[in-house]
Amino acid sequence: MNTVLFLLIGIPLIEIYLFIKVGSQIGAFNTVLLILITAVAGVAYARYEGFITLKSAMGQLIKNELPIYEIVSGATLAFAAFLLILPGFATDVVGILLVIPFTRRLILGKFIKKKYDQKKYSKNYIDGEYEDIGEDDDKKV
């Protein structure tokens, strides 16, 4: 709960601070224009990367493999597009880092590897013994 409260208060404060600093350097109109340009360009690039990820996932499915990285990458791209739409410079930086494939792979690599390794070595069967009991065995008295 404390983390959510910190994010709800902290992120807008950081964004307001950055708006004031950048606005004092390049002007108010240019600051607003820069926010709009990063939102449009970022969402367009996120859409492009999303199509590439979807194409890669379809290739994995055709090979009869589970596209774990592509699923997580697609969700990350949706979150990055959301961050790019939000007005602000800090959220734009995080969104751009999540859109770029190299940095997205670095950020997500640790999480995906742990999950994939756990599933890779898990058994897909149950080992046990059984005894066949038929109707004929009950009538032999």
Could you explain the architecture of this structure?
The protein has helices at 2-26, 28-62, 68-85, 89-99, 101-120, 135-139. It is mainly α and 141 residues long. The chain has one domain. Helix 1 packs across helix 2 (28-62). The longest helix has 35 residues, at 28-62. It is elongated.
- Structural domain count: 1
Helix content: over 70%
Structural class: mainly alpha
Q: List SSEs in N-to-C order.
A: HHHHHH
Task: Note the beta-strand portion.
Answer: under 5%
Q: How is the biggest beta sheet arranged? A: none
Broad shape: elongated
Report low-confidence residues grouped into runs of 5 or more.
none
Number of helices: 6
Compute the number of strand runs. 0
Averaged pLDDT: 82
Radius of gyration: 25 Å
| Separation of the first and last Cα atoms | 69 Å
TL;DR of this structure?
The chain is mainly α and 141 residues long. The protein has helices at residues 2-26, 28-62, 68-85, 89-99, 101-120, 135-139. The mean pLDDT is 82.
Give the helices and strands, then pairings:
Blueprint: H1 2-26, H2 28-62, H3 68-85, H4 89-99, H5 101-120, H6 135-139
Helix pairs in contact: 1-2, 2-3, 2-4, 3-4, 3-5
Any descriptors?
141 residues, elongated, mainly alpha, 81% helix
